[in-house]
């Protein structure tokens, strides 16, 4: 695995630096792309959304898996390693905590199939990097523009956080609300939307 660091510009002019680790087979110079298609996959924890997204992503090669999770503690590092093993061969892994819009704009056209997992962690990373909740829609729209500019298929995974109890603190309630509005923006743009329950996909759009 080789790692590089990229600096991405925020709306306010300052930069977001994020580590980008890339692993997997080398990208060929010329590829034949499937028509542009955006698939949005929602679900709760352990609902099967990531497995479903990977199945949807096996349409062409080379395939890129854009991972937004960061190994901030031992438990999270273990989760990331487990997900890496479950993907198996045939995927180029791109570790991109914040700069997925920029990566799609710069590199996305080289992959006929891309899976982004997941937007909820991406949102958390943005907020941890001092992006204000009011700025999030701007980042989401930039992501959607970059995704739509890619000539292949992109499967985007996110968590549905609004089906449980009302969170007991203001920060958690704010995050739930921002995540819900983010999901609405992506769902409105997507060609297909699926909701996963107990491993079963329900097509919403």
Automatic annotation (TrEMBL):
Q: Which reaction does it catalyse?
A: adenosylcob(III)inamide + GTP = adenosylcob(III)inamide phosphate + GDP + H(+); adenosylcob(III)inamide + ATP = adenosylcob(III)inamide phosphate + ADP + H(+); adenosylcob(III)inamide phosphate + GTP + H(+) = adenosylcob(III)inamide-GDP + diphosphate
In terms of superkingdom, the source organism counts as: Bacteria
Q: Which UniProt keywords apply?
A: ATP-binding, Cobalamin biosynthesis, GTP-binding, Kinase, Nucleotide-binding, Nucleotidyltransferase, Transferase
- Name the pathway: Cofactor biosynthesis; adenosylcobalamin biosynthesis; adenosylcobalamin from cob(II)yrinate a,c-diamide: step 5/7; Cofactor biosynthesis; adenosylcobalamin biosynthesis; adenosylcobalamin from cob(II)yrinate a,c-diamide: step 6/7
- Report the InterPro entries cross-referenced here: CobU/CobP, P-loop_NTPase
> Which EC number(s) does the record attach to this protein?
2.7.1.156, 2.7.7.62
Can you name one GO molecular function term for this protein? Answer: adenosylcobinamide kinase activity
| Biological role stated in the UniProt entry | Catalyzes ATP-dependent phosphorylation of adenosylcobinamide and addition of GMP to adenosylcobinamide phosphate.
Which Pfam family name is an example for this entry?
Answer: CobU
Q: Which protein, by its recorded name, is this?
A: Adenosylcobinamide kinase
Report the sequence similarity comment from the record. Belongs to the CobU/CobP family.
Ranges for the region named Disordered are 1-29
Task: Please name the GO terms of the biological process aspect recorded for this protein, alphabetically.
Answer: cobalamin biosynthetic process
EC main group? transferase
Where's the active site on this chain?
Answer: 83
- Gene3D superfamilies for this protein: P-loop containing nucleotide triphosphate hydrolases
Keyword ATP-binding included in the entry's annotation: yes
* Tagged with keyword Nucleotidyltransferase: yes
Provide the taxonomic classification: Bacteria, Pseudomonadati, Nitrospirota, Nitrospiria, Nitrospirales
């Amino acid at each position: 695995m080789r790692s590089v660091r990229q600096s991405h510009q925020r709306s306010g002019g300052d930069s977001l630096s994020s580590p980008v680790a890339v692993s997997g087979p080398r990208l060929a110079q010329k590829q034949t792309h499937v028509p542009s298609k955006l698939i949005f996959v929602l679900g709760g924890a352990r609902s099967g959304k990531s497995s479903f997204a990977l199945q949807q992503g096996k349409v062409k090669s080379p395939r890129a898996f854009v991972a937004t999770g960061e190994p901030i503690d031992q438990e999270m590092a273990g989760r990331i390693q487990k997900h890496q093993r479950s993907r198996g061969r045939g995927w180029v892994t791109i570790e991109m905590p914040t700069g997925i819009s920029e990566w799609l704009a710069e590199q996305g056209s080289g992959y006929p199939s891309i899976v982004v997992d997941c937007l909820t962690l991406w949102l958390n990373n943005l907020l941890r990097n001092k992006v204000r909740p009011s700025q999030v829609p701007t980042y989401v729209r930039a992501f959607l523009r970059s995704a739509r500019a890619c000539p292949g298929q992109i499967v985007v995974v996110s968590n549905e956080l609004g089906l449980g109890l009302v969170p007991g603190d203001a920060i958690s309630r704010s995050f739930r609300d921002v995540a819900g509005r983010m999901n609405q923006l992506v769902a409105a743009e997507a060609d297909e939307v699926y909701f996963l329950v107990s491993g079963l996909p329900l097509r919403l759009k």
